[in-house]
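Q: Hi! Curious about what Glutamine--fructose-6-phosphate aminotransferase [isomerizing] looks like structurally. Here's the sequence.
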Amino acid sequence: MSATTSMTTFMAREIAEIPAAAEAVLAAGEAARIGARLRAESFPFVVVCGRGSSGHAGVHLRYLIETRLGLPVSAAAPSVVTGYARPPQVAGALFVVVSQSGRSPDLVAATQAARAGGAMTLALVNDPDSPAAQASDLVLPILAGPEQAVAATKTVTNSAIAGAALVAAWAGDRELEQGLSAMPERLGRALALDWSAWSADLAEAPTAFVTGRGHSLGPLREIALKLAETLRLPALGYSAAELRHGPRASVSAATPVLALRQADPLAEGVDDLVRDLTADGLRVHACGGPLGTLPWIGDGHPACDPITMLVPAYRAIEAEARRRGLDPDKPTGLTKVTETL
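A: Let's find out. The predicted structure is below.
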């Protein structure tokens, strides 16, 4: 038995801190202040820049901006700036960089190029004194506090929550604001959810799939990443619509599927996929809705629930890593700050 089997990991501690971290960023009011500032501006489009877990929070932000504000959102490709030396034509746009450390050189360079190109730049970062923050016109600290595990957890949820609070204020969306106000309590309840039925099903799997639609796309990709980095299990995150196309051919009885389902207009498509996969004899673990097989706390705001679903998934992955004798705090070959160019 490894040392990590009998000890509390940083990852476990930081997952437990998620509700308090969420309360801190929501209470700070910075998202409301910046949202009011953005409401006074007119942007033709938005560009979101981030990698890894921060990029997944950026995908969640994209759906919020497009559904609440009707603005098209593009994902930045930093290598266009750092490798191909082609600054983007972003005059008048809003450029949002999402980063835990704010120190990756490619993200900093992309932000600097966007600002020089006439975009308003906004940094969602855990370190408000980081280079990415210094390169930005506006800074929204996510206030997650120190995070020592290489596998990011509370910085991911707080990035998504800060982005949602920003959009709620920017769009004047009272329902989203109310949904966010319930998040600390709901996240606390989510800590008690046991998804070990899903994680145990991964024991002999050569790979795994995670699926959902709309607001759950960023979180489901985040779960797939955590499976890869923490359990060393290749995992693929697909929209439920995309999974019906080419990827469906590689889903088998040996590859468990986790489906996230929030109560919104896209729920029926997720339910239909769960029914079809189950009818084909495949192993499907679903969260949310009438076909849910995993413990859940009931529907809240549909843009907030996929963030909350990260908590039981994180807990299950952390516990499964320890069961396998892996150290979830120090995944092989990874460091806390990934410096790419």
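A: A fun detail: The chain has a mean pLDDT of 94.
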